[in-house]
Amino acid sequence: MALLEVKNLRKKYGDFAAVDGIDFSVEAGEIFGLLGPNGAGKTTTINMLIGLARVTAGEIRLGDVDCVARVKDAQRRIGVVADESNLYDEMNGFDNLIFCGSLYGMEKRRRERRARELLEVFGLSEAGNKPFKAYSKGMKRKLTIAAGLLHEPEILFLDEPTTGLDVESVRQIRTLIWELNRTGVTVFLTTHHIEEAEKLCHRVAFIVKGKLVRMGMVEALLQEGQGQHVLEFRVEGKAPSLQQELTQMLPVQVDMPDEKTVRVLTSERVELMPFMSFFSKRGVMVYEAKWIKPSLEDVFVNITGIGLAQMRKEKEGAQR
């Protein structure tokens, strides 16, 4: 059953269409991921869904609520966790949650009970009396998610939930999202970490230049990716500068998740020797070459033509 329905949603700034007529729905009880590079329209879309950006055209419905015409009513039924915390440094964890509850008009006893309950669930009971500024990045993200859940919303919007966190905190937040969903929380997630979406989401949609270019169950998209072959090289040398040359030389698609990994995507299996010769002539040492099972990252690259290295570079640039 669709909890959130979006039809022909558009957002224009003058002649520029940041979001250009997209349609999708989010089912009750699922984790839905909106994936795309920086500037693709993810943030604009989520801002319209949560009532922070005016809709140029289109429909947004949350259950029986018209979110465009009744913004305030819709906001009472959603939880929002931005990529940067909006809590107060000088207030402790418990008081931050109490304050958020008062903004939603929660009765005092209910918000105090709910705050203690969430501090316990999120493993923050001992930190509840400490000022927010003393929290680690992972603890801050946990409390921010708790604040978004305080009023028991029908759907939780998470914008880049693990950006800027250390590896252990990322693992904890991902586990937390999964556990929340198991209890029935519907989650709308935006991320540029495609592997995160593969681990967490039931369905995903790829957005590029304001348009949805593909949407489906993660398992179905991965199955679709079985029709392509991925050859991965682990290298030492000047491989990043050779990506364009390799693409021009051979009829393949090339992506570089990092400076030591070269992935070649092809519609059929190819011989290794032309690649080995290519790298050898340019002083690049290959210390591992293997065929790998396509991931959601590979499917994304194949569908959009956007490499993951490019996507991460754009995100890093946007954060500076």
Explain this structure to me?
- The chain has 320 residues and is an alpha/beta fold.
- It has two domains: 2-220, Rossmann fold; 223-319, Alpha-Beta Plaits.
- Helices cover 37% and strands 29% of the residues.
- The chain contains twelve helices and 14 strands.
- Strands 6-7-8-3-9-10 form a six-stranded mixed β-sheet, with helices on both faces. A four-stranded antiparallel β-sheet has the order 2-1-4-5. A four-stranded antiparallel β-sheet has the order 12-13-11-14.
- Strand 9 and strand 10 (211-217) form a beta hairpin.
- Helix 8 (218-225) crosses helix 11 (296-304).
- The two termini are 41 Å apart.
- The model has no long low-confidence stretch (mean pLDDT 88).
Question: What labels describe this entry?
Answer:
14 strands, 12 helices, alpha/beta, 2 domains, Rossmann fold, four-stranded antiparallel beta sheet, Alpha-Beta Plaits, six-stranded mixed beta sheet, 37% helix, 320 residues
Helix count equals 12
Uncertain runs: none
- Look at the helices and sheets and give the structural class: alpha/beta
Give the N-to-C terminal Cα separation. Answer: 41 Å
CATH architecture label name of the largest domain: 3-Layer(aba) Sandwich
Query: Which term fits the overall shape?
Result: globular
Helix content: 25-40%
Describe the main β-sheet briefly: 6 strands, mixed
Domains (count): 2
Counting DSSP E segments of at least 2 residues, the number of strands comes to: 14
Q: What is the overall pLDDT average?
A: 88
What is the percentage of strand-forming residues? 25-35%
The ordered H/E elements are: EEEHEEHEHHHEHEHEEHEHEEHEHH
CATH class of the largest domain: Alpha Beta
CATH superfamily of the largest domain: P-loop containing nucleotide triphosphate hydrolases
CATH topology of the largest domain: Rossmann fold
Oligomer: single chain
Radius of gyration: 22 Å
| Strand order within the widest beta sheet | 6-7-8-3-9-10
